[in-house]
Amino acid sequence: MFDKILIANRGEIALRVIRACREMGIASVAVHSTADADAMHVRMADESICIGPASSTDSYLNPAAIISACEITGAQAIHPGYGFMSENARFVQMVEDHGLTFIGPSAQHIRVMGDKITAKDTMKELGVPCVPGSEGGVPDVEAAKQIGRDFGYPVIIKATAGGGGRGMKVANSEAEMERAFQTARAESKAAVGNDEVYLEKYLQRPRHIEIQVFGDGKGNAVHLGERDCSLQRRHQKVFEEAPGPCISEEERARIGAVCAKAVGDLKYSGAGTIEFLYEDGEFYFIEMNTRLQVEHPVTEAIFGVDLVREQIRVAEGYTLSFGQDDLAINGHAIEVRINAEKVPNFSPCPGKITQYHAPGGLGVRMDSALYQGYSIPPYYDSLIGKLIVHGRDRNEALSRLNRALGELIVDGVDTTIPLFHALLQEDDVLTGDYNIHWLEKWLAKDPFSAA
Ligand code: MV4
């Protein structure tokens, strides 16, 4: 059992973890950069320690500083949140070598899923449906062209070490292959120092459906349904919901059971997300994220579980506190990401918050580290809050979202709040009729020019 946990993160997710610790009677340690001395996570934690200068490379991404902070404060475990150190296998190994516990999967599981080819091979072997494509890496353009002929165009070229859409290129015909292949390679080399690529059949209008899974590292595992995160801009999600508006109970049970079995067979430990593209009633595995995700609260809302509490329990060596039969969906939840960004360009907008008022009432959760007078530093990502609403059904969740957005006040900086007011006027959003391209197509119509 842990007495004290160090949270290697900042912002709303640090608060999220501190809250779980407090409910469990576990002391919390915040780490912060010099730029974050006044941040809410520092105020809310039981203790705090400065781990370096403003630049994340030297603070939130500095393994030695984080591990030293554990030694100094006597924290026994590290919760990484999302981003930063959450999917860094070398860091996890280092944490374990220092006799500390990483609250998350093993270094080996992170490594396997971090390499997209190994991840796909592993999932395929475990019976998870995958996008048809190359067997492993594709060495050269000639091999790529052969695969194009075998599967038919369009195909997509992806970086093995990619993620977030980096080094991804579509080829619509053999004529486009040479250029697409070389560009994908070069971008991947530049971004991650690895130029291995693989090929898949390109799905033209899928939805992004991800399954929440949870394992206890002993072979027990469950799924907690899906989230539809299709509304994205440049691979940044903006609106997420659970359950998926187009997924039936039967489909959920079927793909959920496949995912839970895979995670159990892997003896995976902790929270994970298995990402799929969903088109014409079929699921196609693309990637697995070995962390707690930004959008986890929509799953918490409809299942009534505390995923962070469960992460901590599993890291302590307990088995899961629920089985598949204990899990049932109640209603519908939607999350919108409030970013300090100016629409329509989404340019970052750091600065001082002159007024802040969080919405409340039945079915409303606002996860944010903002407070009146706080200055959003320019060094980190622009997420400043997540508004999560829960209703008995999708329409109630949408009405509640509209009502809560009306109560929310964030003054002093530009935010994505106007984007959500506008989206709630769109029939396709109201009916759930969207795919991964909907938002970018809608933004291209310049919906804010009149406003
Ligand atoms: C795809 C695809 C179509 N076909 N793979 C984008 C990021 C990475 N996680 C996977 N991505 C995609 N893979 C095949 N075979 C389309 C995308 C994609 C996408 C996926 C999810 C959400 C938004 C997206 C936006 C553009 C492209």
Topology of helices and strands:
Blueprint (H helix, E strand, L loop, with lengths): L3 E4 L3 H13 L3 E7 L6 H5 L2 E6 L10 H11 L3 E3 L9 H9 L3 E2 L4 H8 L1 H10 L15 H11 L3 E5 L9 E3 L2 H19 L4 E5 L5 E10 L4 E13 L2 E7 L6 H17 L3 E11 L2 E8 L6 H8 L3 H9 L16 E8 L1 E2 L4 E2 L2 E2 L2 E3 L6 E4 L7 E2 L6 E9 L2 H14 L1 E3 L5 H7 L3 H5 L6 H7 L7
Parallel strand pairs: 1-2, 1-4, 2-3, 4-5
Antiparallel strand pairs: 6-7, 6-8, 9-10, 9-12, 10-11, 11-14, 12-13, 14-21, 15-16, 17-20, 18-22, 19-21
Helix pairs in contact: 4-5, 7-8
The structure holds ligand MV4.
Would you kindly provide a written description of the structure presented here, covering whatever features stand out?
- 34% of the residues lie in helices and 26% in strands.
- It is an alpha+beta fold.
- The longest helix has 19 residues, at 174-192.
- The chain has 15 helices and 22 strands.
- The chain has helices at residues 11-23, 40-44, 63-73, 89-97, 107-114, 116-125, 141-151, 174-192, 249-265, 296-303, 307-315, 394-407, 417-423, 427-431, 438-444, and strands at 4-7, 27-33, 47-52, 77-79, 101-102, 155-159, 169-171, 197-201, 207-216, 221-233, 236-242, 269-279, 282-289, 332-339, 341-342, 347-348, 351-352, 355-357, 364-367, 375-376, 383-391, 409-411.
- Strand 10 and strand 11 form a beta hairpin.
- The strands form 6 sheets. It has an 8-stranded antiparallel sheet, with helices on both faces.
- It binds ligand MV4.
- Ligand MV4 is lined by residues 131, 156, 165, 168, 200-203, 208, 232, 235, 277, 286-287, 436.
